[in-house]
Amino acid sequence: MVGTLVHQLTRNSSIEEIKEAGLEAYYTDHGVGVYPQAAAGYPWNANAIAVKGDPVADLTEDLAAEQKARATYEKLIDLCKEDKDVVDVLKYLREREVVHFQRFGEALNGVQEKLAQKKWYMNNIAGVMGNNSGGCRQ
């Protein structure tokens, strides 16, 4: 979304405006197209996604990612205060991160509650022992 916002703001820029904004290196590589990268210019890669396959670890990572995104939007809002239209989009995106954080928190609570439950294992002895249900027979 931010990349698209930047594209919309730069697509009609002149070469002089691009140079003045310090975007000539980006323009050389990508024109005014959307290319996902960090503010420092590092391209996006899968290292940004931390997945362990463990629901508690993964949801905790998701919570952290939402807070990092929220903090980034707040910094972008600080940088763009003079452009109300841009700030409105950034505020909307920031609020989405807050809601996502809340939903991931609810999911984490649910997983932790499930993991804390006592586990009861029961078997159906009658079904296993004799009514041709496909179970083992002695």
List keywords for this structure.
6 helices; single chain; mainly alpha; 2 domains; 0% strand; elongated; 138 residues
Summarize the SSE layout with pairings:
Layout: H1 2-10, H2 15-20, H3 24-30, H4 55-79, H5 84-116, H6 125-129
Helix pairs in contact: 4-5
What structural category do the secondary elements indicate? mainly alpha
Strand/helix succession = HHHHHH
Radius of gyration: 25 Å
Number of domains: 2
Largest sheet: none
Shape: elongated
Q: What's the end-to-end separation, in Å?
A: 64 Å
The percent of residues in helical segments reads 55-70%
Averaging pLDDT over every residue, what do you get? 85
Query: Per DSSP, what share of the residues sits in E-state strands of 2 or more residues?
Result: under 5%
Number of helices: 6
Could you characterize what this model shows?
This protein is mainly alpha-helical and 138 residues long. It folds into two domains: 1-48, no CATH class; 51-138. 62% of the residues lie in helices and 0% in strands. The protein has helices spanning 2-10, 15-20, 24-30, 55-79, 84-116, 125-129. Helix 4 packs antiparallel against helix 5 (84-116). The longest helix has 33 residues, at 84-116. It is elongated, with a radius of gyration of 25 Å.
Structure summary:
This protein is mainly α and 138 residues long. The protein has helices spanning 2-10, 15-20, 24-30, 55-79, 84-116, 125-129.
